[in-house]
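Chain X:
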Amino acid sequence: MTAVKIPKNSGSADMTLLSNHPEKNVIRLQLKQNATLQALEAEDFAEFEQHLVITDGHKGDFLLMQGVRRMEQYFILDGILKRVVANNKGKEMILRFAAEGDMETSYAAWRLGNPTPYAIVCVTKARVARLPLPEWAAFIERRPALAKAFELSVMRGMSEIMAHTITLHLLDAPGRVTRFMRKHPELRDNIPQKELASYLNLSAETLSRLIHRGKV
């Protein structure tokens, strides 16, 4: 699959080494609260920091392009990202959303030697800590507890995408919206309605109508 065309604003994200970042102490605390990184031993954290670059992305910025082979690991500090796949005609499907405390990755594709099957895009203004996947893989291979926590996160994400795909086929529009609100109440008021409608395979008008009529 060829790489999706990069929008004009996709290269506007600001990147700074964690060690040089003016908010590095706050960022360190945020990283330690990340669900996956809680398995990282305290004495290993200093080494981990040396690999990290902090990116402040704007709404619509691409962190990862579909169809490329240079991949990174992302830990979300603030904001919301989406994983999205597009065909050659530009039609898109949102696979999942991920918010602060979560992570994003293309680890499976990298391990299989495949290009990225999807893009990772900022839904809102977002801040992430990132490092190249080869460096991340080498780091976790020496730390079994962290590797296990990471693998569970990867599998959880894959399971979430599969469940969502099944939902699109089996549930009607009110059912899809109700399920999302039940599973992800923390995202309800933070995802732009147009993005949420696309994720649920609805028009923005239908989603708005269901919400305002109290159908969810």
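Chain Y:
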Amino acid sequence: MPIAPALPLPRHLRPRREKLFGQGRPRPLDREAKVRVMHSARALMRRTEKGRAYGAISAKAYAVLEALLWGFHNAKSGLCFPSYESIAEKAGCARSTVAECLKALEDAGILSWVNRIARIRERCEDLFGRSGSRVRVIRTSNAYEFHDPLPSKPPAHMGNSSKSGFLSGTPNQELLSLSTTPSHPPIPLNPDLAAALLRLGKAMGAVS
């Protein structure tokens, strides 16, 4: 049975699109996670209303997702920031269609993205006609992140967190049995010291 992704916030309630320098927010996904994302998208293609040819996403949106996941996303590094033109060529559609499909996929909770920006230095002239340079921030391609419908699992070596295999206490503690006989016999108490301790106990009322 397909697992439906979480419902996204309406557009007017979402925060402004994040802009980041560099590679964005890469998220590695193995083959099984990618299959789950595609399976979730396929379930959302089913028609839910009469008169509609598709559901929350169209066949073109599914093709765009397939191009991103299997054509551009790096499973190990999580990097995925192709241009609209590259996506359109891979998915076999127009550039304008890519933009519409990406919005539909984001509304369905399948993916999200941040705007990648970069600094460039360009030549310019000042008010006196002297040549110089200035730094300008430009927008490059988007960095895409795909939402796995299943929550992340703890590493296999951790096991069940409620049944920890670690013993309590510090690592260098030695656990000794109460029934263990000491390796050295007890040291006999000095008679004078014993008498003094007895008198002190009687004075404090600890000994009758």
